[in-house]
UniProtKB/TrEMBL annotation:
GO cellular component terms attached to this protein's record: membrane
Domain of life: Eukaryota
Topology term for the membrane: Single-pass membrane protein
Taxonomic placement: Eukaryota, Viridiplantae, Streptophyta, Embryophyta, Tracheophyta
Annotated binding of heme, by residue: 448
PANTHER family: CYTOCHROME P450 SUPERFAMILY PROTEIN-RELATED, FLAVONOID 3'-MONOOXYGENASE-RELATED
Name of the protein described by the UniProt record: Cytochrome P450
Keywords from the UniProt entry: Heme, Iron, Membrane, Metal-binding, Monooxygenase, Oxidoreductase, Transmembrane, Transmembrane helix
Cofactor(s) this protein cannot do without: heme
Predominant subcellular localization, coarse grouping: membrane
UniProt GO MF annotations: heme binding; iron ion binding; oxidoreductase activity, acting on paired donors, with incorporation or reduction of molecular oxygen, NAD(P)H as one donor, and incorporation of one atom of oxygen
A matching Pfam family: p450
Length: 468
């Protein structure tokens, strides 16, 4: 702090001309870019399936493969890595508490059943929208319609059924803007205090987007907070489950201080709802788009999906009930094949070590712990250094000739009885006997907690291909 004041006074005494300041700024930017590109060059890329399984699933006992590299998630960036959501929280008590809450309070099968009416409404809305488009113009913008239906469903699960359509659209637009701006946010993952000055315009844009999210979400959050009596049988929304959740501040516990459990702040609630809406919608839509692109290229596959649905529910039935989804084996095979060939998350990243963010005197320090021997990565006879980023490219791993016949071909039949994909599990830990054949939802402790609900939503919206 003292140092900053001295420099500040010095600047006031003799402010350098603007041109000189610009040149200095450009030099700092160049140095930072060099810094980042050096860091990137150290990435280790794992392309061998057995090694991926060893590190992600069997290894990681000491926490070595349980962290992602410092994140560029909006909440973490804006709070200088203090506020976290599930995807960005370091492996530890906070991550455990918020992840367990999502998995057991919202995604547990007994809870998911309670959202069936919301899913039915979303499907009916989607079918009506597609039919309307088909009759009025002969062309249906199916991806847009599915996005609106899925985002609306996620918003209902997050805040309840009563959110008006205009606000849901505004939330979806704000999410799109945020996702677009995330691409350039990795510059804030390191040295936030400095990068925030250097990339001022980007920073201000992020602050504005976050403010917009707060304006949209906080009234809904407060309305739920004020609602004490929920009719029995009504599903609790995601935000309801967060109000009374007590969490430990990882920053305090890491510095050895007493860390009393506390409720989540409004800022943290907004960040978690934003993650729920973004993670719950965008990868699923990307998956649907790759399926639809393949259906256009392979009309015989779309015809087979239609025939299967007609055979299961009858040609005259309007929509598929959830009790029939399990019978649609070919539809499931089409989804699995699209997820194998075009995983929506291109690569998993892990920080090769356990990194604890510690705080003292208002400054963040990084402390690293040693990696346990089982998790060592040796490259050309030398151990990779702690802190290295390790990448697991999902598409490459899932197109291995040793696991799949003609791995680059779109062939849903491989997931039917007798095919090499029959019985392949999406959970790499189970049923794969030391093997990962595909992992579109990741693997190990940081695997996607939304896999079950995502597959349910994909199957449900996939039944609309009969219409489009
Ligand atoms: C087709 C849909 C989806 C796909 C392909 C997908 C894929 C993924 C992948 C690859 C990861 C990284 C896993 C790892 O690093 O091992 C991930 C993480 C995550 N996903 Fe999903 N996901 C989908 C849907 C969902 C849904 C519906 C939610 C629910 C809101 C969700 C919430 C999350 C969260 C919170 C994480 C971070 C987990 C952690 O760090 O502990 N995802 N997802």
């Amino acid at each position: 702090m003292t140092l900053l004041l001295v420099v500040g006074r010095g600047l006031l005494r003799r402010a350098p001309p603007i041109k000189e300041m610009r040149a200095r700024l450009a030099a700092v930017k160049w140095a930072l870019q060099k810094c980042f590109s050096t860091a990137l060059r150290q990435d280790v890329v794992i392309t061998d399936r057995a090694t991926a399984h060893r590190l992600l699933v069997r290894g990681g006992g000491g926490g070595a493969f349980c962290n992602r590299p410092p994140t560029s998630a909006a909440s973490s960036v804006l709070s200088r890595q203090r506020h976290h959501n599930i995807g960005s929280a370091p492996y530890g008590p906070l991550w455990r508490a918020i992840r367990r809450n999502l998995v057991s309070e919202v995604f547990h099968p007994s809870r998911l059943r309670l959202y069936a009416p919301a899913r039915r409404r979303a499907l009916r809305g989607l079918l009506a929208d597609l039919r309307e488009q088909c009759t009025s113009s002969n062309v249906a913008l199916a991806a847009e319609s599915m996005h609106a239906a899925l985002f609306g469903l996620s918003a209902a699960m997050c805040f309840g059924d009563g959110v008006d359509a205009g606000r849901v659209r505004a939330m979806a637009d704000a999410m799109e803007d945020l996702i677009r701006s995330l691409v350039g946010l990795s510059v804030f993952a390191a040295l936030p205090a400095l990068t925030e000055l250097v990339y001022r315009k980007k920073w201000n844009k992020l602050v504005a987007l976050r403010r917009q999210q707060e304006e949209l979400y906080l009234p809904l959050i407060n309305a739920r907070r004020g609602q004490h009596h929920r009719p029995s049988g009504e599903a609790p929304t995601y935000v309801d489950t967060l109000f009374d959740l007590l969490v430990v501040d990882d920053n305090c516990s890491a510095s050895g201080g007493n860390s009393p459990k506390q409720r989540l702040t409004d800022g943290e609630l907004v960040g978690l709802c934003s993650e729920f809406l973004g993670a719950g919608t965008e990868p699923a839509i990307a998956a649907m788009q790759s399926v639809m692109a393949n259906l256009v290229k392979h009309p015989e596959v779309q015809e087979a999906v239609r025939r299967e649905i007609d055979a299961v529910i009858g040609e005259d039935a309007e929509e598929v009930g959830e009790e029939d989804l399990g019978k649609l084996e070919y539809l499931n095979a089409v989804l699995m094949e699209a997820l194998r060939l075009h995983p929506t998350v291109p690569s998993l990243s892990r920080q090769y070590d356990r990194v604890v963010i510690n705080q003292a005197h208002g400054l963040n320090f990084l402390f690293t712990r040693k990696v346990i021997p089982e998790d060592h990565i040796v490259l050309d006879g030398r151990r990779a250094s702690a802190g290295t980023t390790v990448q697991f490219p999902l598409e490459r791993l899932a197109r291995d000739k040793a696991a799949w016949a003609d791995p680059d071909e779109f062939r849903p039949e491989r997931f039917l009885a007798g095919g090499e994909g029959e019985g392949v599990s999406l959970v790499a830990a189970a049923g794969s006997a030391g093997e990962i054949k595909m992992m579109p939802f990741g693997a190990g402790r940081r695997m996607c907690p939304g896999m079950g609900v995502a597959m349910l939503h994909l199957r449900t919206s996939g039944t609309s291909w009969r219409t489009s």
